[in-house]
Specification:
Elements: E1 6-9, E2 14-21, E3 24-27, E4 37-38, E5 40-43, E6 49-51, H1 53-59, E7 66-68, E8 80-82, E9 85-87, H2 89-108, E10 114-119, H3 125-137, E11 141-147, H4 148-159, E12 164-171, E13 176-184, E14 187-196, H5 201-220, H6 230-248, E15 253-264, E16 267-276, H7 277-302, E17 311-315, H8 322-332, H9 345-357, E18 365-369, E19 374-382, E20 385-395, E21 400-401, E22 403-410, E23 419-425, E24 435-442, E25 453-460, E26 466-472, E27 478-483, H10 492-513, H11 520-533, H12 538-556, H13 563-578
Parallel strand pairs: 1-10, 10-11, 12-17, 14-18
Antiparallel strand pairs: 1-2, 2-3, 2-4, 5-6, 5-7, 8-9, 12-13, 13-14, 15-16, 18-21, 19-20, 19-23, 22-25, 23-24, 25-26, 26-27
Helix pairs in contact: 1-11, 2-3, 2-10, 4-9, 5-6, 5-7, 7-8, 11-12, 11-13, 12-13
Length: 579
């Protein structure tokens, strides 16, 4: 029997880990019973690593020591700063993956080294490779990378026995994907996909933040940028904005509340703003319009009319916004359904794929597609005019993967010694308007009269990684390359250093947490509250002591109850008293 392979949904806002047991997928919970791990990483004041809820708690106090929404930076070369230190996106993602690995190992009581990890369908090759790198840094062999809508389809198919054509609308915290899939006889086939890697719930949050900033200026004359603790205030307001957004999913009105926000006119300023669902939906309409443009593009690519669809499946927490369902029904004439939990179906689908790879008996067979066209450039013509960068597609968008295609090209000079090969990703007939993802040179060609044939083969694997081989037909001389974006692919020395760095951070965390039954981030908060209590007025000191006592007692007795509410209240007053 093969080793257990876990499935991971590495999300922008939250991440989950799942496993298949006795043929059924299960979301793995941490010791506190939480199924979701906030995708937040922080560095505590004592330089211990904080992951998940602990880092999220710290964010309002020390945003400069905390990183959120790192998924949006995957595949890019720039680093992020946390507590004065620079980290690559792969390292931050690796910390989240490492925590998920530990949660799964504690639950399953076994060591784990392999995982299937999901990515947005519209992630390009560089972003997928960065995700694989993050897994390796975390100590995981990423045996397969699959698209999030495809994973959701696998979860859905596990419960749906009859054949269906389904549109999967996946709106998460930072990315959006839409896929049209066909399920028949245990086979899940992706017909078409489209999406936007920078559109999601984070953008909705920022629209509410804009509303708050405008109201603060209009009602109170407060300019956030002019406050000395502006960054902390922004972090608090963002937390309040997210809470209001979540309430508006089920309520017509919500109150944006933040206590002890700052000092204003020699008095503590407490914010309380009401926002209606109608106001909120107006704010995000342009984003929903963009998602519907992608929906229509995917439908066109699939060759299906709306009448040919059986169902619409919603995936991702942001789909709980009522406007999403209403606009989809208006556009396609079908009421969206939530056959599986939109927060967890991607992780359970990843677990199903993991079980398939591990040789376990499951009902689904996955047939995925490529979201991009891959090709090369030649000396040809563009619009009837000779042009040195004509784009020639080799593997076309929406081709089922794995895919392997070959095309023959020819030298243009007699006794040509070298051929420069450039590989592009895109749809434009002008290669220079597409994305250059790799290049190499075939040297030492035989002396031959032009045109001498050169056979180029593109091989796209199940992880979306592209392998290219160029071969001189006359001699068999070949040069190959695996396309990985050099701007984000780590050199071996840097990669090993990142592995040691992340492992070292977790070693620090374990030693710190073993000191008491109280998590490190809350210890810092309680310590800060105690220090501030020494100089606070009697009224504030009483509030600090009461909240600190209640939090400590709940942790010692393992009675979570309204613990998170108490932590937020204490964080607010501590942050206020600091200034």
């Amino acid at each position: 029997m093969m080793a257990t392979i876990i499935g991971i949904d590495l999300g922008t806002t939250n991440s989950e880990v799942a496993v298949v047991e006795d043929g059924q997928p299960r979301i793995i919970t941490d010791k506190a019973g939480n199924k979701m791990l906030p995708s937040v990483v922080g560095m505590g004041l004592d330089n211990e690593i904080l992951v998940g809820e602990a880092a999220l708690n710290q964010y309002a106090l020390y945003p400069e020591r905390t990183i959120k929404s790192i998924k949006r930076s995957m595949g890019f070369a720039q680093k992020v700063e946390m507590a004065g230190e620079a980290y690559s996106p792969q390292e931050i993602s690796a910390i989240i993956l490492r925590r998920l690995k530990e949660i799964a190992e504690a639950d399953l009581q076994q060591s784990l080294s392999q995982a299937v990890v999901t990515v947005p369908a519209y992630f390009n090759d560089a972003q997928r490779q960065a995700t694989r790198d993050a897994g390796e840094i975390a100590g995981l062999d990423v045996v397969r990378i699959i698209n999030e809508p495809t994973a959701a389809a696998l979860s859905y198919e596990a419960a749906a026995k009859q054949g269906k054509r389904i549109l999967i609308y996946d709106l998460g915290g930072g990315t959006f994907d839409v896929s049209v899939v066909e399920m028949q006889g245990g086979v899940v086939e992706v017909l078409a996909s489209h999406g936007d890697n920078h559109l999601g719930g984070d953008d909705f949050d920022q629209r509410i933040m804009e509303f708050i900033r405008e109201e603060l200026v209009y009602r109170y004359g407060i300019q956030l940028s002019q406050l000395k603790n502006a960054r902390q205030v922004e972090a608090k307001l963002l937390r309040a904005a997210v809470a209001a957004k979540e309430k508006l999913s089920s309520q017509p009105f919500a109150c944006i509340e933040a206590e002890y926000l700052t000092m204003w006119k020699d008095a503590p300023f407490n914010l309380s703003l009401e926002i209606s669902r109608d106001e909120y939906e107006v704010m995000i309409t342009s984003y929903i319009d963009k998602t519907l443009d992608a929906v229509h593009r995917a439908m066109k690519d699939s060759g299906l009319s709306p009448a040919a669809l059986d169902e619409i499946l919603l995936v991702g927490g942001s789909t709980r916004t009522p406007l999403v369902s209403w606009r989809l029904k208006e556009a396609l004439g079908i009421e969206p359904r939530c056959e599986v939990d939109p927060d967890f179906c991607v992780a359970t689908g990843a677990a199903i794929q993991a079980a398939m790879i591990a040789g376990e008996k499951v009902s689904s067979v996955l047939v995925d597609i490529t979201l991009y066209t891959f090709g090369t450039s030649i000396y040809g013509d563009l619009d009837g005019i000779p042009y040195a960068h004509q784009y020639v597609p080799i593997i076309r968008k929406n081709t089922p993967i794995p895919a392997k295609k070959s095309e023959v090209f020819f030298t243009i000079e007699d006794n040509q010694k070298t051929v420069d090969i450039k590989i592009y990703q895109g749809e434009d007939p002008d290669a220079l308007k597409n994305s250059l993802i790799g290049e190499f040179t075939v040297e030492g060609l035989s002396k031959s009269q032009a045109p001498s044939p050169i056979v180029m083969t593109l091989d796209l694997d199940l992880d979306g990684i592209l392998h290219v081989v160029a071969t001189e037909k006359k001699t068999g001389l070949a040069k190959s390359v695996e396309i990985k974006n050099a701007a984000i692919r780590m050199e071996s020395g840097v990669f090993e250093s990142a592995q040691k760095r992340v492992a070292g951070l977790f070693g620090t965390e374990k030693a710190y947490e073993s000191n008491s039954g109280i998590p490190g981030d809350i210890q810092i908060l309680l310590k800060k509250a105690d220090e501030l209590g020494e100089t606070a007025c009697d009224e504030d000191r009483e509030v600090l002591e009461r909240l600190s006592k209640e939090i400590s007692e709940k942790l010692i007795r393992s009675e979570p109850g309204d613990l998170q509410v108490l932590i937020v209240q204490l964080t607010d007053i501590v942050e206020f008293l600091k200034y």
